[in-house]
Design brief:
single chain, 178 residues, alpha/beta, Immunoglobulin-like, five-stranded mixed sheet, three-stranded mixed sheet, globular, disordered C terminus, binds copper (II) ion, Phytocyanin domain-containing protein, Cupredoxin, Phytocyanin-like
Length: 178
């Protein structure tokens, strides 16, 4: 138990506090027919986070200027990648633009723009998915001690019967006498 706790703490310590690695498109990866505006919306990208593009050899990643992003041109790419698993470090605040270099793919939706938030606002400490286990006390109820049942009622019953018997005997005695 103690060893497990140590391992968990080491794992947590190994992950930089607020850096997030975003798999672009999540399970769909970097592909056609994915709406990356939708994917990026609602996400906050911070300095130190990473974008990871996972794609087949049919695709590539080209980081481009905003104007080339708008016109879907990859010919003036700032940087191009074809390794099918491209990790882009978001090292500074500002906008970053990516398109697929394969002809026609950008216009089919393979384009992504992200806004990297300023480093001034640290992201809220997201709770790590790890179970911050509430130590569930194994409460196997020890059976409540049975209170010794009072024998008063029983004794009274016996007493009552005794009285009844006495009355009957007395009655019998009176009958005999009568
Ligand atoms: Cu493509």
């Amino acid at each position: 138990m103690a060893a497990l706790t140590v391992v968990v703490l080491l794992l947590l310590a190994a992950v930089p506090a607020f850096a997030v690695n975003y798999i672009v498109g999540d399970s769909q990866g970097w592909s056609t027919n994915v709406n990356y505006d939708n994917w990026a919306s609602g996400k906050t990208f911070n300095v130190g986070d990473t974008l990871e593009f996972q794609y087949s050899p049919l695709h590539s990643v080209a980081e481009v200027k905003e104007s080339d992003y708008s016109s879907c041109s990859a010919s003036n790419a700032i940087q191009s990648y074809t390794d099918m698993d491209t990790k882009i470090s978001l090292t500074a605040p500002g906008n970053r633009y990516f398109v697929c270099g394969t002809a026609g793919h950008c216009s089919q939706g393979m384009k992504l723009s992200v806004t990297v938030a300023g480093s001034g606002s640290p992201s809220t400490p997201s709770s790590p998915g790890g179970s911050s286990g509430s130590p569930s006390t194994p409460s196997n109820n020890p059976s409540s001690p049975t209170t010794p049942s009072t024998t008063k009622n029983g004794a009274a019953g016996v007493g009552g019967r005794g009285v009844l018997i006495s009355v009957l005997l007395a009655g019998g005695g009176l009958a005999l006498l009568g």
